[in-house]
Design brief:
Number of strands: 0
CATH topology of one domain: Serine Threonine Protein Phosphatase 5, Tetratricopeptide repeat
Number of helices: 13
Shape: elongated
């Protein structure tokens, strides 16, 4: 049995989860409460897309070792993939009770609340996830929009500016920061970001539209000041 477990572990470490699956099942045939084998089987079934079956083994592992690291995170992922959002949220929160710094649980919760248009709740979890540099690009995009929807314009701007420090050629961030600055009436600054985005992607129609708008609004502002 030890040899089977060692082989399953070696395959698991190489991310060959489905190859580890039959070996772990053989271990369970000899010892149905073996926590390591339960983990490998649950993982293998999840990566095979068999989420309901995977859950059965996570629950068995829960009875044997309820404090297993990432147990509730994995159960939450199964429920999420099954479309059972409330159960997914419940399990991600249980994971955070055991591990408050789980970046993946924080991000997954934020993303679920974001998808449900519960932006205030999304902000709480996405901010914590972002502080850990977890799922950076996806997190920034969701967090920026959540700031926009909850009218936290200062935080939204800071987020774009910080992101562009490490991703200076990201046209999405350049365009969004430019659009944000337009809303603040800072047309010259807005145009500097928008024009850079246009140079990077001349075919981006949204960037071109924002540039035209910024130029129009700047002209109106200048005319109004002159009068």
């Amino acid at each position: 049995m030890k040899k089977l477990l060692a082989q399953a572990k070696a395959l698991y470490k190489k991310n060959r989860y489905q190859d580890a699956l039959p070996l772990a099942k053989k271990v369970l045939a000899l010892d149905k409460h073996n926590d390591e084998a339960l983990f490998y089987v649950a993982h293998g079934l999840y990566h095979a897309g068999q989420f309901r079956r995977s859950l059965r083994f996570w629950r068995r592992l829960q009875k044997v070792c309820p404090t297993e690291p990432s147990l509730y995170l994995n159960m939450g992922a199964c429920y999420e993939d099954l479309g059972e959002t409330q159960q997914a949220i419940k399990n991600y929160k249980r994971e955070l009770d055991l591990n408050p710094f789980s970046g993946t649980a924080l991000y997954n919760l934020g993303a679920l609340y974001f998808s449900s248009h519960k932006y205030k709740l999304a902000v709480n979890y996405l901010e914590c996830s972002h502080s850990q540099k977890n799922s950076v690009q996806a997190c920034v995009r969701r967090l920026a929009y959540s700031y926009f929807k909850t009218k936290q314009s200062e935080k939204e701007q800071i987020l774009y500016e910080e992101y562009l420090q490490t991703n200076p050629n990201d046209t999405w961030a350049l365009n969004n920061l430019g659009s944000h600055l337009m809303d603040q009436g800072e047309y010259y600054r807005a145009l500097s970001y928008l024009k850079k985005a246009a140079r990077l992607d001349p075919n981006d129609k949204l960037v071109a539209k924002n540039i035209r708008k910024a130029l129009r609004d700047l002209k109106k502002q200048t005319s109004s000041t002159a009068n």
